[in-house]
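Practice problem 4.
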């Protein structure tokens, strides 16, 4: 009986340790850094972004992660507002108001206010959706492939507002 209790305790500790160490990197194993670059506005760098992927070239048939390290303070409301604005701008057709409202609520649940040094990450889950992290803590997962593609399109769509950053993330030479 004592051996069983020791085994149960060891298993519990192993599960706790794996959960404590789990973060976005575990969602894209094995992955490698495809590219990285800074996003700046009016000469002020807002963040450094990295794109990690299980395969290259990056495509929507395999998992990949966008990892962002912020250099400025930004509220989660501003992050969601800016993200939705870009999603709307990049959309091929108008997005229904109720869909935009749902996506805004999802982003507000997934995002955190950030200050310099904070990290937010998003993992693309093929044919499923997206998983978000603040630091090493998962904040939300959405089973919505349309939202996931629209969200990652902010950086990866050819019509992005940051074409140089897109090229750097995708490892495309100029």
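Answer key:
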């Amino acid at each position: 009986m004592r051996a069983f209790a020791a085994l149960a305790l060891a298993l519990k500790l192993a599960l706790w340790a794996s959960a404590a160490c789990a973060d976005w990197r575990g969602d894209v194993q094995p992955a490698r850094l495809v590219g990285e670059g800074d996003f700046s506005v009016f000469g002020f760098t807002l963040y450094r972004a990295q794109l990690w992927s299980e395969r290259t070239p990056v495509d929507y048939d395999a998992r990949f992660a966008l990892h962002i390290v912020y250099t400025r303070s930004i509220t989660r409301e501003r992050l969601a507002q800016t993200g939705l604005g870009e999603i709307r701008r990049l959309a091929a057709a108008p997005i229904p108001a109720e869909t935009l409202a749902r996506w805004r609520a999802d982003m507000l649940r997934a995002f955190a206010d950030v200050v310099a040094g904070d990290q937010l990450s998003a993992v693309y889950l093929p044919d499923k959706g997206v998983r978000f992290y603040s630091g090493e803590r998962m904040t939300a997962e959405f089973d919505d492939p349309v939202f996931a593609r629209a969200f990652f399109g902010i950086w990866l769509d050819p019509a992005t507002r940051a074409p140089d950053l897109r090229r750097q993330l995708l490892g495309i030479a100029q």
